[in-house]
């Protein structure tokens, strides 16, 4: 066991020396900073309880008092321990990092620019917020309306989550809880996220003098959050599947391999109207490559029947820089 730990430590130290490690560390830190800002400036003042660990922490602060960042950190630590015990011991170090820094980053925003701060000169932020207090719920609002606070929170959080997912990381918290629900209740991961989020939203009923309306807003926000995350994720990871039927398929294949350094697949197809046999070429490209090949085909006056569709996720070695470098080296040797 000690040998395995030593080998893992050596591999981790090597990984720390790579550009990829530091790039992803910066991305994760910035993503969590945006998440913490969304929580502190839009959830805390308005007392919106969205289906997140931050929302549950706001409930605990409202009931027992204390520090929001501390609750977030403690709950994430508990969930991480449960994840190691109930899911598997290979739980990603990225999730450990992001889950543990959310609480401190929330406290960081509270220290740098508290939402209820009072300034000696100029318009006081605290006065602005108090002017928009909701007499029914007793909550304050940065934007002056809980629905606007909800929209701002969802946009910031969803963008941060999508950015984290693009580097195979997550914000922790609810993601961990959803995985536990998925394993033991056998729901798919999407349903698990919805169930976990809805349960957290319903804990808002325990807040003294909290209104049913605020819980409904939270439930709607949890649902919208899932939709917006899907949208941002699809936008960040959007690729094109291009299918081309052309007599000049060999020229197109050469361009894809030698210029774009991508692989492609050839199929023999038969025209339903003419009955002629042709070759269909299929290739997955990013947006820039897709534009290049269309422009090249137009410049070369290549006659072709082409269709394109969006692909939001690609698995395997398609996007690996190392894999593309190997392909380029193989082509150059020919």
The spatial strand order of the largest sheet comes to 2-3-1-4
Contiguous low-pLDDT stretches (5 residues minimum) are 118-138
Rg, Å, rounded: 25 Å
Which percent range fits the helix content? 55-70%
Whole-number count of domains: 2
Give an overview of the whole structure.
By secondary structure, the protein is α+β, with helices and mostly antiparallel strands. It folds into 2 domains: 2-236, no CATH class; 239-333, Alpha-Beta Plaits. It is 62% helix and 9% strand. It contains 13 helices and 4 strands. Strands 2-3-1-4 form a 4-stranded antiparallel sheet. Strand 2 and strand 3 form a beta hairpin. Helix 4 packs parallel to helix 8 and helix 7 (146-166) packs parallel to helix 10 (212-236). The longest helix is centred in the N-terminal third of the chain and has 25 residues, at 19-43. The two termini are 47 Å apart.
């Amino acid at each position: 066991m000690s040998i395995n730990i030593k080998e893992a430590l050596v591999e981790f130290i090597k990984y720390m020396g790579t550009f990829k490690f530091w790039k992803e560390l910066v991305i994760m830190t910035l993503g969590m900073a945006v998440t913490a800002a969304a929580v502190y400036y839009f959830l805390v003042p308005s007392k919106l309880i969205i289906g997140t660990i931050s929302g549950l922490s706001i409930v605990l602060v409202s009931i027992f008092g204390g520090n929001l960042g501390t609750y977030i950190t403690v709950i994430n630590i508990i969930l991480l321990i449960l994840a190691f015990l109930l899911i598997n011991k290979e739980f990603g170090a990225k999730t450990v990092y992001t889950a543990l820094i959310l609480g401190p980053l929330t406290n960081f925003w509270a220290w740098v620019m508290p939402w209820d701060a009072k300034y000696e000169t100029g318009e006081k932020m605290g006065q602005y917020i108090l002017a928009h207090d909701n007499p029914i719920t007793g909550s304050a609002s940065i934007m002056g309306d809980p629905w606007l606070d909800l929209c701002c929170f969802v946009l910031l959080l969803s963008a941060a989550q999508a950015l984290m997912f693009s580097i195979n990381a997550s914000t922790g918290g609810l993601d961990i809880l959803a995985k536990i629900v998925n394993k033991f209740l056998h729901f798919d991961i999407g349903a698990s996220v919805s169930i976990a989020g809805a349960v957290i939203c319903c804990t808002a009923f325990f807040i003294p003098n909290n209104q049913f309306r605020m819980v409904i807003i939270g439930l709607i926000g949890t649902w919208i959050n899932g939709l917006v995350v899907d949208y941002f994720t699809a936008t960040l990871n959007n690729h094109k599947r291009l299918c081309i039927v052309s007599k000049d398929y060999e020229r197109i294949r050469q361009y894809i391999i030698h210029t774009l350094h991508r692989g492609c697949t050839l199929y023999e197809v038969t025209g339903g109207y003419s009955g002629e046999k042709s070759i269909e070429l299929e290739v997955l490209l990013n947006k820039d490559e897709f534009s290049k090949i269309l422009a090249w085909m137009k410049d070369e006056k290549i006659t072709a029947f082409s269709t394109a569709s969006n692909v939001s996720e690609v698995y395997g070695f398609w996007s690996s820089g190392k894999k593309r470098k190997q392909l380029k080296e193989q082509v150059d040797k020919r």
